[in-house]
Amino acid sequence: MERLFADVILPLAIAPLTFEVEESMSDNIVVGSGVAVPLGENKIYPGIVKRLHHNTPPYKRLRTVAAIVRTEPLAGIGQIALWEWMAEYYMCTEGEIMRAALPSLLKPSAENDDLFSKLVFSLGREQMLRLPKGLRSEAALNEALESLLPRRKAQYKAMMEFLGLCGEGHYFDGEVPRRALEASTPIIAKLLEGGLLESYDRERTPHYESTSFRHQTTLSEVQASALGKLQESLSRHRTTLLHGITGSGKTELYIRLVEATLSRGESVLYLIPELALTEQLILRLRAAFGDGLVVYHSGMTARARTEMYIKLSRSEGGEIVVGTRSAILLPLNNLGLIIVDEEHDRSFKQEDPAPRFSARDVAVWMAHNLGTRTLLGSATPSLESFYNAYTGRYGYVWLGERFGSGALPTVTVSNTIKSAQRGERKGHINKELRDAIDTALAEHRQVMLFQNRRGFAPYVECPSCGWSARCPHCGVALTYYKKGNRLRCNLCGHSEDTPPRCPACQQGVLEPQGFGTEKIEESTQELFPQARVARLDGDVAASAQRLRNTIRSFERGETDILIGTGLITKGFDFEGVSVVGILNADNLLCRPDFRAEERAFQTIVQITGRAGRTDDKGHTIIQTSQPENHTIIQAAKGDYRAMALCQLRDREAFGYPPFTRLVAITLKHTSAEGVYRGARHLAARLKELIGRGVSDAHAPAVSHIADTYIMEIIVRIHRNESPADTKGLIREALREFSRNKLYGRIAVTVNVDPQG
Ligand code: ADP
Ligand code: ZN
Ligand code: ZN
Fold first, then answer.
1. For the domain 221-399, what is the CATH code?
2. Distance between the two ends of the chain, CA-based, in angstroms?
3. Which tens digits make up the pLDDT trace of 431-481?
4. pLDDT of 513-542, one tens digit each?
5. Coil, strand, or helix at residue 128?
6. Which residue, 101, 234, 259, 338, shows the most beta carbons closer than 10 Å to its own?
7. Is residue 687 predicted with pLDDT exceeding 50?
């Protein structure tokens, strides 16, 4: 008998390890099985079998798989291939990816195996309710219900709720999980006692199926033609980009494609940016797909996510799952289509902790390697995706008309410097915007004011006209350094004294803080005392309840003016909004980041799209101290193509993505001196190994957080170089570095395709 070995992925930042499989276990172990393996002196770790083979590993101490805890595969062949690719591409380990995919299975345990497997690999159970046999006829059921009516109204209501969930025609065979009912526990207990319901336990399911009501819409001619082109494109290209302006009805098209895919018995994964803000979208999808819709997000408990994971891994297809980025790691069998809605959104990229992956890019890889199809959709695609479509690598479908009577809003660019000089600027609002707000309020319409959070780095801004300091060489925002009152460029090192007065309007005294949303809320209320003003920013969103209330009250027209940060750009569909104001577009442009212009364009166009969604009265006003800036002009015209071609030209000239790939290496340590020396040493070694493309070690814009000092090195991989080879060299340098006693305490992280 040949000896059998299993390479096991462990939930750690290490490569898979090999264990021997005892003969008694060999019939029950398959690729993807969940196993328990010994590690260290008395630790037992859960892991997943990556490969089975007969090659004796060269270990000094070969250990044996302790137990098979789940024979049924926890990861399919496709998933294991995906993890392997992700680990390679994102320079992390398969274990880190497994940990992101299966959060609660993976806690190490020193307990004995039995307990371990029960605790860790069993699904929760839940109470199910159904009618007892005796009531499964019309007459008996009616009689029972009538007996409740006179005095036991609460029980009657609970029974009606139960029957409602069973759905018409399924009263006698319907089964409903206890948690689906709103009725209280004592009421249910009484129904069980009284023999009106009976209960049993079963393994908990992540979602509950019931007969759904379908919400029917008819596509416009333009939409119908776009749908035809999409279907055609999806059959010819692995990845397709749907570029449709805001309000064009992209969601309606997604719904049609999902229906078609489900009807073939295939599953669909529908990725969305952030869940808290997509209640409206979920409601629309629920209306279309009923309770069969599975919603998966990182706010779920680890246990609920794991349950859903296991349930989905058993399904053979026909699932529709909506989720945020980590849903890309779900085990969906027979996956026919992945939709990435608002594909430009940066929340698809996980920046911390590892795996630092982009769910959008993983979706594209899956389309090219695992046989699914991927549809990217946006009104303002990322330049990477647009470039891929432009060069024919992706299919491309354009939807250039708003649905129904909604026209794109009129856009006005309002000059903050001129306004300040004329004395027309009050409370950060120019006369043009004030007049538009007055008109909207008089017509009982609503207003959204956008004020983004300040960039991470402090920079100076004129309080009276909004002008801010930029590098004369690079055009990016200068960072303010309190020490010496200097302004410095993080890209080229240019530095200058902070001017005492604003050079643009000659009035304002430059201050290192801008104005935040709270300040704006206050001054807006003063300017429009009769208006009901609310704020929606990170502080409000920190409470799900406050967030929901703020959105609902605006939706119902109980608020007139909503002031918000980037949060309000995302996919909201409010009918009453006629005016959108962008208080200071300069803030968007002034970031020390090569994506600043692309992002500014996306934000302005997305927020502009919130106005006049149902009629032709929308008006957007962009306040800026640089009305002649080309990105502002392109955004005001909504001219995506002009922006994209202009930015792509710059990216090519300066060697930025999509023409190169970036790898950011970050070093952290409590000693500024230590991290500085370590980073210089590592940068020098990388330069030796890789040559061109390695930046000097430098402090990032935020270089000191809570007693930790940070240094960064950027490696730029050019088109004619092999990313895999360069990454191999980076790995080699990092391995040496971690072994170097001088630098052992420095924490190093690697971020491939960083977004920030
Ligand atoms: P997008 O996602 O492209 O911004 P949406 O799908 O949100 O656009 O559509 C904008 C609005 O138009 C929504 O309120 C949507 O319900 C409505 N709409 C779009 N297409 C249709 C249609 N064919 N029938 C009815 N309403 C539609
Ligand atoms: Zn510069
Ligand atoms: Zn000024």
1. 3.40.50.300
2. 55
3. 999 999 999 999 999 999 998 754 345 677 787 887 888 877 766 677 777
4. 555 677 788 889 999 999 999 988 777 777
5. strand
6. 338
7. yes
Highest mean pLDDT: which range of 37-51, 220-234, 412-426: 220-234
Question: Percent of the chain scored above 70 by pLDDT?
Answer: 89
Q: Under CATH, to which class is 410-456+515-649 assigned? A: alpha beta
Domain with CATH 3.40.50.300 in the chain: 221-399, 410-456+515-649
CA distance 209 to 293: 8
Structure tokens at 152: 């036991």
What is the distance in A from the centroid of ligand 2 to the CA of 631? Answer: 19
Q: Is the dihedral of CA 554, 558, 561, 563 positive or negative?
A: negative
**Mean pLDDT for all residues in the chain:** 86
For atom 18 of ligand 1, the residue with the nearest CA is: 249
* pLDDT above 60 for 110: no
Strands 395-399 and 410-415: unpaired
Domain with CATH 3.30.70.1320 in the chain: 660-752
Asked if 447 and 562 touch (Cβ cutoff 8 Å), the reply is yes
Mean pLDDT of 91-103: 90
Name which residue sits closest to atom 15 of ligand 1, judged by CA.
Answer: 249
Bridging pattern class, strands 67-70 and 34-39: antiparallel
Q: Token digits for 303? A: 């246990």
Counting ligand 1 atoms within 8 A of each CB, the residue from 403, 408, 570, 572 with the most, and so the one to mutate, is 403
* Tens-place pLDDT, residues 696-748: 998 876 676 667 888 999 999 998 899 999 999 999 999 999 999 999 789 99
pLDDT score, position 706: 64
The response to whether residue 247 sits with its C-beta less than 6 Å from ligand 1 reads: yes
Q: From the CB of 639, is ligand 1 less than 6 Å away?
A: no
Instruction: Return the CATH architecture of domain 4-119.
Output: 3-Layer(aba) Sandwich (3.40)
Instruction: For a ligand 1 pocket test, name from 252, 257, 344 the mutation site with the most ligand atoms within 8 angstroms of its C-beta.
Output: 252
Any atom of ligand 1 within 6 Å of the Cβ of 219:
yes
Residue with CA nearest ligand 1 atom 10 = 247
Q: Which residue has the tokens 């990725």?
A: 271
Protein residue with its CA nearest to atom 20 in ligand 1:
249
* Tokens coding 216: 């029917």
CATH of 660-752 given 3.30.70.1320, 3.40.50.720, 3.30.1490.20, 3.10.105.10? 3.30.70.1320
SS3 content of the chain, % helix, strand, coil (to 5): 40, 20, 40
* Closest atom of ligand 1 to CA, residue 223: 23
Q: Are 375 and 237 in contact (CB under 8 A)?
A: no
DSSP class of 467 = -
Contact 626, 589 (CB under 8 A): yes
Round to whole Å and give the CA distance between 316 and 754.
Answer: 35
Amino acid 733 reads A
The CB density around residue 138, as the number of other CB atoms within 10 Å, is 10
Phi-psi sector, 404: left (phi>0), alpha (psi -120 to 50), beta: left
